[in-house]
Amino acid sequence: MIYHSLIRSLFFGTLALILTACGPEDSTNNTAAAVDNNKIYNWKMVTAWPPGFPVLQEGAERFAKNIHAMSNGRLNIKVYAGGELIPALQTFDAVSQGTVEMGHGSAYYWAGKVPEAQFFSTVPFGMTARGMNAWLYHGGGLEIWREVYKPFHVIPFPIGNTGVQMGGWFNKEINSLADIKGLKMRIPGLGGKVFAKAGGNPVLLAGSEVYTALERNTIDATEWVGPFHDQRLGLYRAAKHYYYPGWHEPGSVLELTVNERAWNSLPADLQAIIKNAAMAENVQMFSEIEEKNLSALQELKDRPGIELHRFPDDVLAKLKMLTDEALAEEAANDPKFKHVYDAYQAFRKNDDAWSDVSEKAYLAIGK
Ligand code: CA
Question: Is the Signal keyword given for this protein (predicted)?
């Protein structure tokens, strides 16, 4: 009896701890449904990725499988790639409207609707995965992200990171700013705006069109992701100058979105499973892409004719200055953007000071 009551108190003690120690989304826990162990939830998740897209679509599917296992089959999530149920770039709206319960994408895809969402994926010369995780999980970033998505009835979670991307493939060398003038490059988002300010000509192209456009010289350059995804797309066959670093995407956060009403319909244990499975997948996806990139970089280096270059310092310095200008201009015109920009910049300033004496100082030690 003593043993049983000990187990009981341990169990309920732990449950109480789980319920009280969860993250910011638990402001919604007071509306969580009571636990009914027989109730089965069948959900749909739509993603912004092509079918079978390595790491990202695969990660979304692994996440669903993990949730199925952890919930003992009580929460089943059927995952649809972009276009299978909903066009890739309408996943946010589908989750917002409750057409589906979950989405997987990246916040900068919704920049047309929510410009300040970009800070929750990546901004040029912004924080890397390390800084973004610190900000989102412990520095107040996630709470602001939730506020930003609240009017859309969407609850966001970080669920992966691409790491520092590559600068892209160019059909000629970039030795100075003059070489960017008039250059036609596929580079989306804020990076594209900055590229235009530098005199370049940014072009918007879907992933499926990138290779052909570069190969036929419809464009002079393109960025994509990192060595692994770039190699799979065959970009090394279309241009030979491969530049680093990806100043425009220093660590793009991938997001899980959950419809608010669907979230509130779940008992607290299933909510805790989703939250922790997303956190686990954040580590999984980031680790997997880092490993695949380091292997693919070696393979690309071994391919004859490919030249790996670092962007010249003065080009990077100019692009950074133009990025600061672009962000400040947008903040001056849009109070919602400014609210997130101020929070991001405040955290980032301290993160820079810290990484100057930690990671950057350590990595600067000669080999
Ligand atoms: Ca990219």
Answer: yes
Q: Please tell me the distance between residue 168's alpha carbon and the centre of ligand 1 in angstroms.
A: 9
Q: How confident is the model at residue 367 (pLDDT cuts 50, 70, 90)?
A: confident
Residue 58 CA, ligand 1 centroid: distance in Å = 18
* Architecture in CATH for domain 168-250+296-333: 3-Layer(aba) Sandwich (3.40)
- Distance from Cα 116 to the centre of ligand 1, integer Å: 18
Ligand 1 centroid distance, CA of 226 (Å): 8
Find out whether 224 and 235 touch, Cβ atoms under 8 Å.
yes
Dist. CA 20 → ligand 1 center (Å): 38
Confidence band of 31 (pLDDT split at 50, 70, 90): low
Give pTM, 2 decimals.
0.89
Tens of pLDDT, residue by residue over 92-118, are 999 999 999 999 999 999 999 999 999
- Domain boundaries of the chain, sorted by first residue: 38-162+251-290, 168-250+296-333
Centre of ligand 1 to C-alpha 249, Å, is 6
Q: What are phi and psi of 234, to 5 degrees?
A: 80, 20
**CATH of 38-162+251-290 among 3.40.190.170, 3.20.20.140, 1.10.10.10, 2.60.40.1120:** 3.40.190.170
- Listed residues: CB within 5 A of ion ligand 1: 165, 223, 249
- Does residue 159 contact residue 254 with C-beta atoms inside 8 Å? yes
Which 8-state DSSP code applies to residue 311? P
In tens, the pLDDT along 296-334 reads 999 999 999 999 999 999 999 999 999 999 999 999 999
Residues 54/228, Cβ–Cβ less than 8 Å:
yes
Rounded to the nearest angstrom, the distance between the alpha carbon of 208 and the centre of ligand 1 is: 13
CA of 323 to the centre of ligand 1 (A): 16
Contact 301, 308 (CB under 8 A): yes
> 225 C-alpha to center of ligand 1: Å?
4
Residue 65 tokens, joined: 């499988």
pLDDT in tens, 151-178: 999 999 999 999 999 999 999 999 999 9
Q: Tell me what pLDDT residue 22 has.
A: 43
Ligand 1 mean position to 235 CA, how many Å? 13
